[in-house]
Specification:
The protein has about 675 residues and is an alpha+beta fold. It is about 45% helix and about 15% strand. Helix 8 crosses helix 18, helix 10 packs across helix 11 and helix 24 runs antiparallel to helix 25. The longest helix is centred in the C-terminal third of the chain and has 20 residues. It is elongated, with a radius of gyration of 36 Å. The relative contact order is 0.07. Putative transcription activator involved in regulating light control of development. It is found in: Nucleus. Belongs to the FHY3/FAR1 family. This is Protein FAR1-RELATED SEQUENCE.
């Protein structure tokens, strides 16, 4: 306790306060002339004293509250008293320490369990009593009772601010918090930003993270029907501003919102190129409205997540999932993905088999692994991590035969024959184990790094849910094209740091076409290809590591047709040629990778002008996209030497100066805004 607080405790010691005054006692001690004279002689006017006058009872409360904060406690309004009879009004009020009184024990019932939280109340007797008087003509409030003796420790100044009475969020801060919530940032990030804005040390805002969470929760406790109407109004408003925005919804028999799905123009364009492999994540809920949330996400050419669409459902039945899949296909002009990854949801599995019969359905491995601790931690104990490592080894095998043999050995070794989770995993192995999936394209979304990236992307607009209508805005901010292009430009700049490791013409050729993300994957295979030997056989080549005398992969190559395939199926699985195929191409004096094995989805130009023109037939838009492609090529070529970079920097500076001298037309500004929306 500080010295200042200690001095305040002993500054007033009126004899009338030596007795223990019960706060439940309705009697009061009227002030005496002696008491009034004593209070006037007190040097520290900040301490309440008998006879102190206030114009209103609120002013008295504020004075006592300020005093309490300096001493290390807070106060609350305890009891009011009035004269007998109706309409006589309030004549006396009690303000007490926040730890006054005792919480009565709750009677527990079987139907409603009690939380039994520990109470902070300990029967503290500190109080201030004020009484209404008209002695001098006009009504005023006078202190008629005051005790400042506490039966508990008082808080230090750096602790007292955490008491609920002193934690407040101003209207300006509330608006700021709601604005942050719409952007999808976490509450922790909100606190750090506001500390920086207000130039205060961490932890010194007048409110805590819990207060912010409670504030956001209060905005969620709204009428669900009104929220649904607001969401529909928001979607219609967005549709009016952007005709390429798409949404669908259904109403139940009571005309209430049942399901709603939406997608943005930029998402539809991205899907046209990167919609070959899609994750449909249905493991999240909007807790404030108790609605299952489905998110369609893919992987772009820079190895970054890209958003395709979103759906809110009334329930998780096959009927609801079927509606969601139909709506999504409608957004994407009927184009179904090659592969779709989901959670282990039986209703969703049945809906996919009905609505997407030509699409390969697989389970997301990271959604399965996330359940392992609850499934196997208690069963395996100290052997859990050892078992998990063995599971991953089997998961990554190439041969189905090796997987089957290894699985049986693992089950025997860890005694998991009768474990229902292991039984279910094995029965669905063709939907999650890589040996069964290597002939299907998954865009690398099964790797740990990419799964974390996708989860982080999804959390961007789940971390701070506010109102339902605002959620659509949050998603829009999270998938904003400018943010995505900023990340892509950063990746493109990494081209300057790419070094050729093999000196092979195939490597240098691929470096000018593929994104850094895709080229790095191909380069790994090119380096490994040098360690392999190829042997001609009757219908192709046998390729194996130079240290091995048996085994290997069978590669079929038809130079005239430009077709090459390998029994490892890596190209089908990832879109990147394997070391076996690259070895055969090198042996056959092929100095460039055939064009069909440098897929558009992994090239540096993410959206060809023709595709963009189809989505938004606008000559200005197409020319802007064409200019972006030229700039991309300019950066790539200039980064190859210092001389090239110097020339490019000089000439572009001159060109930029000339462009800035030209006038800006209103139509050009509109077209530029249209380009940003379409992109």
């Amino acid at each position: 306790m500080s010295e200042e607080a200690g001095s305040m405790l002993v500054a007033y010691d009126d004899p009338s306060e030596q007795r223990s005054l019960s706060l439940d006692d309705t009697s009061s001690t009227e002030e005496s002339p002696g008491e009034t004279r004593l209070s006037l002689e007190t040097n520290n006017d900040a301490i309440p004293y008998i006879g102190q006058r206030f114009a209103t009872h609120d002013a008295a409360y504020e004075c006592y509250s300020d005093f309490a904060k300096r001493c290390g406690f807070s106060i609350r309004r305890h009891r009011t008293e009035g004269k007998d009879g109706v309409g006589k009004g309030l004549t006396r009020r009690y303000f007490v320490c926040h730890r006054a009184g005792n919480t009565p024990a709750k009677t527990s019932t079987e139907s409603k369990p009690q939380r039994n939280r520990k109470s902070s109340r300990c029967g503290c007797q500190a109080y201030m009593r004020i009484s209404k008087t008209t002695e001098f003509g006009s009504p005023e409030w006078r202190v008629t009772g005051f005790a400042n003796h506490h039966n508990h420790e008082l808080l230090e100044p750096n602790q007292v601010r955490f008491l609920p009475a002193y934690r407040t969020i101003s209207d300006a801060d509330k608006n700021r918090i709601l604005m942050f919530a719409k952007t999808g940032i976490s509450v922790h990030q909100m606190m750090r930003l506001m500390e920086l804005e207000k130039c205060v040390e961490p932890g010194y805002l007048p409110f805590t993270e819990k207060d912010v969470r409670n504030l956001l929760q209060s905005f969620r406790k709204l009428d669900p029907e009104e929220e649904s109407l607001d969401l529909l109004r928001m979607c219609r408003t967005i549709k009016e501003k952007d005709p390429n925005f798409k949404f669908e919804f259904t109403l139940d028999t009571n005309n209430r919102l049942e399901n709603i799905a939406w997608s943005y123009a930029s998402s539809i364009q991205l899907y046209d190129i990167f919609g070959d492999a899609v994750v449909f994540d249905t493991t999240h809920r909007l807790t404030a409205f108790d609605m299952p949330l489905g998110i369609w996400v893919g992987m772009n050419n820079y190895g970054m997540p890209c958003f395709f669409g979103c759906v809110l459902l009334r329930d998780e039945t096959m009927r609801s999932f079927s509606w969601a899949l139909k709506a999504f296909l409608g957004f994407m002009n009927g184009k179904a993905p090659q592969t779709i990854l989901t959670d282990q949801n039986i209703c969703l599995k049945d809906a996919i088999s009905t609505e997407l019969p030509a699409t390969k359905h697989a389970f997301c491995i990271w959604m399965i692994v996330a359940k392992f601790p609850s499934w196997f931690n208690a069963v395996l104990g100290d052997r859990y991590n050892e078992w998990k490592a063995e599971f991953y080894r089997l998961y990554n095998l190439e041969s189905i035969e090796e997987f089957e043999l290894g699985w049986r050995e693992m089950v025997c070794l860890y005694g998991l024959h009768s474990n229902r989770h292991m039984v279910n995993l094995y029965s669905s192995r063709s939907l999650w184990a890589l040996p069964f999936l290597r002939s299907h394209f998954l865009a690398g979304m099964t790797t740990t790094g990419q799964s974390k990236s996708i989860n982080a992307f999804i959390q961007r607009f789940l971390s701070a849910q506010t109102r339902l209508a605002h959620f659509v805005e949050q998603v829009a901010v999270a998938v904003d094209f400018k943010d995505q292009t900023g990340e892509q430009q950063t990746m493109q700049q990494n081209l300057q740091n790419i070094c050729l490791k093999t000196g092979a013409p195939m490597e240098s050729h691929a470096a000018t076409i593929l994104t850094p993300f895709a080229f790095t994957k191909l380069q790994e295979q090119l380096v490994l290809a040098a360690h392999y030997a190829s042997f001609p056989i009757e219908d192709g080549f046998l390729v194996r590591h130079h240290t091995k005398a048996e085994g290997g992969r069978k590669v079929y190559w038809a130079p005239q047709e430009g077709i090459i395939s390998c029994s490892c199926h890596q190209f089908e699985f990832s879109g990147i040629l394997c070391r076996h195929s690259l070895r055969v191409l090198s042996t056959g004096n092929c100095f460039q990778i055939p064009d069909r094995y440098l897929p558009i989805r992994w090239r540096r130009i993410s959206m060809p002008s023709s595709k963009l023109a189809q989505c938004a037939p606008n000559d200005h838009t197409e020319r802007v996209q064409y200019l972006q492609n030229i700039v991309s090529s300019l950066i790539t070529e200039s980064a190859k030497s210092k001389e090239r970079l110097d020339i490019a920097t000089e000439q572009v500076s001159i060109l930029l100066s000339r462009i800035r001298e030209q006038p800006i037309s209103l139509q050009g500004t509109r077209d530029f805004s249209s380009v940003n929306r379409n992109l």
